[in-house]
Design brief:
276 residues; single chain
Length: 276
């Protein structure tokens, strides 16, 4: 499928390297190389695999599965500029924020970035600069306060939409006067599968956290035992709940800005564990 980038040794090395990201627990003996190869093949068939073999080496990039919305990028830029401690928001920090909030790559959406920056600059909400041989940077514009008022203005209660998601049967929903409730009922989700995916995400985030080494090691051990129980023939909800209860403090320490926090919080809820 990639006749110009089909060096077998390069592919083998890339698949071997990616295997580290797929491990579901400490000292996991499972061989994920075949799954990664099949995953790459599925992405290629979907047109979501970008491959290059050049003087810098071999690279495989998984392209985003959805386009970035202009409104989402505007909101992220506003959030990041509002909490600036210095004078400028760097491209690197904006790239990291887009990945954190949306799980998308800014480099794959440069046309959206260009359009949004152009619109905000025309309104003097922001000011952009790209000094020679340096990366793009953004700061507050002359009319930033006007933009701030627009972004922080409360919605009219008469047009507020309240969305509720229920797992199980729904009897009645009571909302305030002038409110509209959109009820979406979902069933059939596998709480164990959802929890395993959330824990795998947490496991990848732990090495990058500021937690003490001993606390990270304890959390990794608990995650490994929990996933082992989930993968068992008949996983016990009580055992899984007990193991996850020990992880609650660690997840809370990471904070709600953690990429894994929302996933773990939702998965824990199925087992009666709250991170609130």
């Amino acid at each position: 499928m990639f006749p110009h980038d089909s060096n077998p040794l390069a592919w083998n090395d890339k698949i071997y390297t990616e295997q580290r990201k797929w491990q579901s627990g400490p000292n996991d003996p499972h061989d994920y190389q075949m799954q990664i190869a099949l995953h790459f093949l599925e992405l290629a068939r979907e047109g979501r695999l970008q491959v290059a073999l050049d003087h810098r080496g071999f690279s495989v990039i998984e392209l985003d599965d959805r386009p970035m919305k202009h409104a989402d990028l505007k909101q992220i830029i506003f959030k990041e500029i509002s909490k600036l401690t210095g004078n400028w928001l760097s491209y690197v920090d904006l790239f990291a924020a887009v990945d954190r909030y949306l799980g998308l790559s800014l480099s794959q959406n440069l046309s959206v970035l260009e359009a949004v920056l152009g619109e905000l600059s025309d309104k003097n909400y922001i000011r952009c600069e790209q000094p020679r041989a340096r990366m793009l940077r953004i700061t507050r514009g002359l009319n930033f306060d006007e933009w701030k008022n627009t972004m922080t203005k409360p919605r009219d209660p008469s047009v507020t939409h309240n969305a509720f998601t229920f797992n199980g049967q729904v009897g009645a929903v009571q909302t305030g006067e002038g409110s509209v409730a959109n009820v979406q009922q979902t069933t059939g989700a596998n709480p164990f599968a959802e929890l395993k995916a959330a824990l795998q995400s947490l496991l990848q985030e732990l090495p990058k956290s500021d937690l003490p080494v001993s606390e990270r090691q304890d959390a990794e051990e608990l995650i490994g035992k929990t996933i082992q129980e989930i993968d068992g023939e008949k996983p016990s909800k009580g055992v899984v709940k007990a193991l996850c209860s020990g992880l609650a403090t660690t997840v809370q320490a990471l904070g709600s800005t953690s990429a894994a926090y929302a996933l773990v919080s939702a998965a824990f809820a199925h087992f009666g564990i709250s991170l609130g």
